[in-house]
Design a protein that fits this description.
29% of the residues lie in helices and 25% in strands. It is an alpha/beta fold. The structure holds adenosine-5'-triphosphate and magnesium ion.
Length: 377
């Protein structure tokens, strides 16, 4: 399609690919007017109207299935609405596809990451640019541009790293780098914190603030009310496809938001008696594992007793993933012993034996490793 036909910013002199700050002082960066989207048997969005201002962090809340992702997929051109209009900086726009949304400066970090895992970060960014297959020199240039953006916002990712080798936190930073490289000024984050450690969330919230301070607008979808209240300027709550209300975050509390989300009073604190810890269900003795000449697990010992929840804490990359691989039988330890319910599994643990012993694992990358997404339950 020729570029002139591709242009979507109706009646504006702004060329595609160079999103500009608001021209009028009062027009919101993004305005949604009466958006409706129906799937067979379900109205995912019903007459939804909302505004995002430059410099604002807008929280978007709602229970599962409330229609948040659908609405954002409409804004990013992945879905077309059945009815309703969208305005950018006061100008009506028609967002026909994801490329168009990108050219208009709208970008999204999806609930499930969209990077091609076998390619490097820089190659992934190059993929989204024209021409479709940029020469290698372009990838080199993009890598150095990404390094600059990465340093400027404290988003540490090596542009030449293969995505598959990155932790989920780093993958998310790579996605953000991609949006910034595409000069997005409406940035949408669909549940970005479900995979992050508390420290990674603190870092990400700083990035949100920096981006907003530059006059960009951020929409942040989450179920975590405390996180939202700590960073958002306003919160919009959706329920059953409709917007229930928008309130300033200052002065809002978890109870108010939860009640808006669910439509009735919610008890946020559940008092439960502490379970008494019983016999050891899992005993780990002196586990050691070497990889590429370096000890990744060094004499690890602990017990997990019945009725107990044991937390293992550490900065990403300090052996947690390897420990899970050893405990679930995916990798054999060099030394040490694992005892399930009093039965020693010295060096013979397989994933099958782990499952037969009553083990289960929810992996870090649940979509990538936890399920075969193309198969039904
Ligand atoms: N492609 C689709 N086809 C059919 N129905 C869909 C599709 N996408 C979403 N829906 C339905 O639309 C409704 C809204 O879904 P949506 O994913 O927008 O909710 P959500 O608020 O993002 O939920 P969650 O918090 O679980 O991510 C749900 O009932 C969902 O089942
Ligand atoms: Mg969703």
């Amino acid at each position: 399609m020729a570029d002139t036909q591709d242009r979507t910013l109706v009646g504006s002199g702004v060329p595609a690919g160079t999103p500009e700050p608001p021209t009028s002082t009062h027009a919101p960066l993004l305005r949604l007017n009466n958006i409706t989207k129906t799937f067979p048997g379900v109205v995912a969005n019903r007459d939804v109207s909302s505004e995002l201002h430059a410099g604002e962090i807008l929280g978007l809340l709602g229970e599962n299935g409330a229609g948040k992702s659908t609405l954002m997929n409409i804004v990013t051109g992945i879905l077309r609405p059945d009815a309703g209009t969208i305005e950018l900086n006061g100008e009506p726009v028609q967002i026909r596809n994801a490329q168009q949304a990108r050219r208009l400066g709208i970008g999204m970090v999806h609930q499930h990451f969209m990077l091609v895992p076998t390619m490097t970060v820089a190659e992934n960014v190059a993929l989204g640019l024209r021409p479709r297959r940029p020469p290698i020199s372009d990838v080199t240039r993009i890598a150095s541009e990404l390094r600059e953006v990465s340093a400027r916002y404290g988003l540490h990712v090596e542009p030449n790293a293969v995505v598959d080798s990155l932790s989920v936190g780093a993958r998310q930073r790579a996605e953000i780098l991609r949006l910034l490289h595409h000069r997005a000024n409406v940035l949408i984050f669909d549940e970005p914190t479900s995979v992050l450690t508390p420290q990674e969330w603190l870092d990400l919230s700083e990035v949100f603030r920096d981006l907003a301070a530059e006059g960009r607008g951020i929409i942040f979808i989450t179920h975590k009310l405390d996180e939202l209240l700590g960073v958002a300027n306003r919160c919009t709550v959706m329920r059953d496809g409709e917007v229930v209300g928008t309130i300033p975050a200052a002065g809002a509390d978890r109870q108010t938001l939860a009640t808006m989300m669910v439509g009735r009073e919610v008890v946020l604190r559940v008092e439960r008696p502490r379970p008494a810890a019983g016999d050891a269900a899992l005993e780990v003795r002196g586990l050691g594992l070497h990889s590429e000449g370096r000890a990744v697990l060094d004499d690890i010992s602990f017990d997990v007793r019945r009725g107990e929840v044991l937390g293992i804490v550490g900065v990403d990359g300090n052996g947690q993933s390897e420990l899970v691989q050893v405990l679930t039988g995916l990798v054999a330890a060099d030394t040490g012993e694992i005892v399930f319910h009093g039965r020693s599994e010295r060096g013979e643990l397989t994933p099958r034996a782990f499952i037969d012993l009553g083990g289960a694992v929810i992996p870090e990358d649940r979509h990538g490793r936890g399920v075969a997404v193309d198969l039904n339950l």
